[in-house]
């Protein structure tokens, strides 16, 4: 079910977080994200407490801060959107660094930045401590629809194959002296995209025929593993339950 190799987001280790069953970690991250999203944006201290919780998890997982921060770059588009909100959201105006900005826009930007960053950080920690095969097994253990698990499995397995095909086509273009320098080269790139689609489709057909010849009948075999113990579930539940307590305090204080 896996991709056959570790993904670049995964950081090999032997920490307690690495050894935790994947479905426990998936449930914990999902619960944590739901709690963070449910927290009132005015409770600034609560988001700081959530960051401390994630820092504790990263320390337990032996994930360096630099590794985590580099992976947070993926949220740059959301950061750019958040920075625009104080200037485009209507409402009461205030002065910030000599510039007139919207108060509701400031709160909205803070809401997007705080909750988005915490959610992405939790997801990065999950990916850094769980390889792709284990993640798919965790989704299977959580009774996600089998078809969705298969789609995710095939996407992960053959994503790198398609990327490698794109790289070979790029090398072939450059070896013939082609470099995309302007609009007049878009036609060549469009033909390349079409050729890549045809090759991917044909490869998919070959893979499907190979699977059918080996007994594939529309579903992957289930891989059973030992169920998680009560202690493992308790350890996984510590993160979302602590976050829930902070969230409740945020609503009451």
From TrEMBL:
Keywords noted in UniProt: Cell membrane, Membrane, Transmembrane, Transmembrane helix
Recorded topology in the membrane: Multi-pass membrane protein
InterPro entries in the cross-refs: ABC/ECF_trnsptr_transmembrane, ECF_CbiQ, ECF_transporter_component
A Pfam family recorded for this sequence: CbiQ
Subcellular location, principal: membrane
Domain of life: Bacteria
Chain ranges passing through the membrane: 43-60, 72-89, 109-130
Localization per record: Cell membrane
One GO term describing the cellular component: ATP-binding cassette (ABC) transporter complex
GO BP annotations, alphabetical order: cobalt ion transport
Keyword Membrane applies: yes
Name of the protein in question: Cobalt ECF transporter T component CbiQ
